Protein: Fungal lipase-type domain-containing protein
Organism: Salix udensis
Amino acid sequence: MQWRLGGHQEAAPAAAAAAATFGIMVSEREDFSLSGPLHLTIVDWNNAHHRRSVAASLVQGVRILERDRQVNRRGSQALAPPWWEFFHFQLHRQLVDDVDSSIFGAIYELKPPESHYDNSVDESPCYVIAFRGTITKPGSVQRDLELDMSIIRNRLHETSRFETAIQAVRNVVATVGESNVWLAGHSLGAATALLAGKTMAKTGIFLQAFLFNSPFISAPIERIKDKRVKHGLRIASSVITAGLAFTTKKKSSQNSRSVDPFATLSAWIPFLFVNPGDPFCAEYIGYFEHRKKMDDIGIGAIERLATKNSLGSLLMTAMGRESEPLHLIPSANLIVNLTPCQDFREAHGIYQWWRPDLHMKSKLYNYR
């Protein structure tokens, strides 16, 4: 189903003008009329590019909500609303961190005009739960960096921010059903959405998820240009990881039988958007491609054991502290942005994902 948009195009320029009148510094990236996907005058919810662009815009809306709060932009000065109103979403609820009172997420409800409604089946959501990435500005930077460190330590699930996030997800799903809910996030927010999606998937609830530049905690092997060296390092890493995993799991399972959580998660297939120029997420490319290469040379069994473990988590387990690696997932629709980027900021930015001229490579990876 297609919906014609554009009813709120004048809101963003008005907000920007009001902000300028009051002497407030406005970033071009925050202004929907300057940086938003205005080319989407019609949204076809069955179009992957359109769904990706809307999801990314809603994530950006959360970021601008927090920036509006930080610089006290209110009413007509606020720049956030056009990021969701343009697509006929309403802000249902803000998700606020209980430590620093920053806005880290939002629940959006799709409210199309009656003239755009019909009973046909499409892929539009009823609700989108979106999470922003790290903001390096006073008012949020300290807490955001603490949470970034919790990702590195595989402890994000222990934080109060994630508890707020997962409770919101559970409540919305319980109210409207899993088929009507999307998850979306960028960077730190993608890690939050990923963990929420994994948590729900373990209970048999599979939510459609759009994960932009999600962090992958690993040595930057993907940055190595020599393919033979890169492949050799990955094989060595797989053998070491698989060996440690076999030893650790053998000891822990001597007196118990447990279901493989990785296999349980394999039916959940999030959309994973990465840029090879972004070292925070680029390792996902090699992570998935390496599985097929290991199968091709006849040692796929080693990689199937290695792919669901990380050296860091295995060492933590050996020291008596269970640590499930957040970033490892069995299946995904991996979408790689091959469009050249000028620098890291562009490669990591959320705004790349609604560009109409992206050169992308997409592949479905199913864990077996």
About this structure: Confidence is low (pLDDT under 50) at residues 7-12, 15-25. The chain is about 40% helix and 15% strand.
